Amino acid sequence: MGTLKADLDTPDFELVETHISYVFIGDTEVFKVKRPVNLGFLDFSTLAARLDACQAEVRLNGRLAPDVYMGVVPVTRSAGGLHEFSGPGEVVDWAVHMRRLQDGDRADVRLLEGRLTAQHIAELAKHVADFHARARCDEETKRHGMAESVRLNVQENFLQTRTHLDSYLTPSQAAEIERWQLAQLADERRFAERAESGRLRDGHGDLRLEHVYLRDDGTIDIIDCIEFNERFRYADVCSDIAFLSMDLVRQGRIDLAERFLAHYAEQSDDYDLYSVVNFYESYRAFVRGKVAALLAQDPEASSETRARAHREARRYFLLSLAFEREPLEPPRLIAVGGMIASGKSTVAAEAGRLLSAPRLSSDRARKRLRGKEPHESMQVDAWTGAYTREATNALYAELARRAEVVLESGRSVIVDASFRTRALRNMIRQLACRLEVPFTFIECVAPRETCLQRLAAREQAGTHESDARSGLWSAFESEYEPVTEIPRAELTRIDTSHPWEQTRGLIERQLVDGSARSDGTTR
Fold first, then answer.
1. Average pLDDT over every residue of 475-501
2. How far apart are CA 156 and CA 41, in angstroms?
3. How far apart are the first and last CA of the chain?
4. What is the C-alpha to C-alpha distance for residues 127 and 79, in angstroms, rounded to an integer?
């Protein structure tokens, strides 16, 4: 392989070394050759094993990058000793042949240059959620995501880094990470519930920023999934997305990391991911630290590569430690309620944006719980079907349960529902009291004519997450109990009929600097 590197490391091809591959990058194409290594968790030591891995890489990456992977080609050696891709002579190795993607479209490059937007993050979250929804899910994938299997991966990580971890962490820091990760896995119930809810899938396994390409035309390509070990790819979907959120945190963009998680949770209706996300973020950071440490010790890698890998390993290991620590500020519970068409969802979405927090929507949850898509109509007469008092109480109990999962992860949460009765408002407020987190109730108000105009526009559009229509106004109004029981310090009323910039300013002053009064003015 040393001769091959020398032959192809020319101005026509840039050579990038990883712990398992030599990647030759040309102007329009890329060739990836597996290194003949056995690292325990992968074995490329034989030619046959490398061919199998190349074929698996092309097949599996076709799921998220269908136009990028062009096939497997032989690496040949001529009688004169010249190595070529698909040349004459003896086949001495195999390579994955790929189309070259534009570096400027890569998510980490976009981030570095200030071109990775919140809209990119939202689109990426939906793309990954859609991929997970159609990914393989069966008893085999389920087995690999159970606590027992994940524990084997964790123990392997610590075993494989035991001899050199002291180059990056103090003994007490290393012991703290190991103790905390194993303690998380001791609560096997959480992991079993994830399995039973169908959240263990054949995912990507290596969802890093540098593997994501976001083109200006909206196309998303995600390359380089794990092909060499199914137990690293068969996992909780949270293990996949935590890799990317961890990577964003590593780059100093906690806001984008949390937005990615929030958008994914909303698109997939998977708010229970917050019960395990801190663990998986710590786990993923440690894995990346292990990989970087292996490269830092690789005698075949260049000195520059080893030095860079050493720096990266320390950062990742410290990040793994940081994910287990308590947040600097307590999480907050924000409930947004009001009459139908009073602007609740718009205000709740802005609150989520400002706090980079997930939004729990009663409209979406009601439909998802009944197997419906968010924009699928469930219109019925008032207080029938999914809108009976019994169904409504069950829905709000589920919203409270989901909110508790998010809060216990150390994150704020927005609950978007009408909260038309004192009992429903007290239910959500008591959750904040029990968990001892700050509580804010934002009541959205607007003139009756404004709300009816909004409902008419909604009916004309034809599709909307909410099933509320103008014909339900009177019935809803008669059931809506005035908000008089919530302490003034916890209550903000916002008239959403004002220009949006004014409304947004009120939301920001309430949630960011706390200067909004309960009557919607400022103090």
1. 94
2. 9
3. 71
4. 48
Surface-to-core class of residue 408, CB atoms within 10 Å of its CB (0-12 exposed, 13-18 middle, 19+ buried):
middle
The owner of tokens 């060739």 is 31
pTM for the full predicted model: 0.91
**Distance between CA atoms of 246 and 278, rounded to whole angstroms?**
9
Give CA–CA dist 53/134, Å, rounded.
Answer: 23
SS3 of 115-167: CCCHHHHHHHHHHHHHHHHHCCCCHHHHHHCCHHHHHHHHHHHHHHHCCCHHH
Separation of alpha carbons 429 and 417, rounded Å: 13
Beta-carbon count within 10 A of 311 CB: 12
Q: Which two tokens stand for residue 518?
A: 């309960």
What is the tens place of the pLDDT at every residue in 341-393?
999 999 999 999 999 999 999 999 998 888 888 667 666 666 677 778 899 99
Phi, psi of 373 (to 5 degrees): -80, 155
DSSP annotation of 373: -
Nearest to 269 by CA among 396, 418, 132: 132
**Helices 171-186, 303-322: crossing angle, 10 deg rounding:** 50
Distance (Å, rounded) from C-alpha 295 to C-alpha 313? 9
Q: Which of 280, 296, 281, 251 is nearest to 161 (CA)?
A: 296
CA 370 to chain centre: 25
What six digits make up the tokens of 213? 């390409």
Question: Which range, of 29-38, 240-249, 421-430, 510-519, averages the lowest pLDDT?
Answer: 510-519
DSSP string covering 445-497:
E--HHHHHHHHHHHHHH---S----GGGHHHHHHHPPP--SS-GGGEEEEETT
Give the Å distances, CA to CA, from 53 to 19, 38, 44, 261, 318: 15, 13, 8, 31, 32
How far apart CA 455 and CA 471 sit, in angstroms, is: 9
DSSP annotation of 226 reads -
